[in-house]
Design brief:
mainly alpha, F1FO ATP Synthase
Length: 100
Amino acid sequence: MNILSFVPVLTGLIITMIPQVAHAAGTNNPSAGIGFLAAGLSTGLAAIGAGYAVGSVGSSALGAVSEDPKILGKTLIFVGLAEGIAIYGLIISIMILGRL
C-alpha cells in the first residue's frame, strides 16, 4: 500500500518541480532544462526498449540455432536490428541537444 501511494506522490512532485529545475539550470533559455530532460528520456527509454528486444530476440535465436545451426546468420541480423533501437534513441537525443 505504501508503494502504491508513494509512486503517484513522487510523480506529482517531479512534474511540479520541473519548471524550477529547468530555471535553476542557469541558462537564458528557460525551456533548456526540459530539453535536457527530453534528451535523457529518449536515450534511456530507447535503451530499455533495446534491452527488452535483445532479450526476447536473443533467447529465441538461441533456441532456433540449437535446433538448426545453419540459421545463425539470420538470427544475428534480427539481434542487430533489435540493438539498432538504442542507436535511434541516441541519435534523437543528439538532435535535441543540438537544438538547445
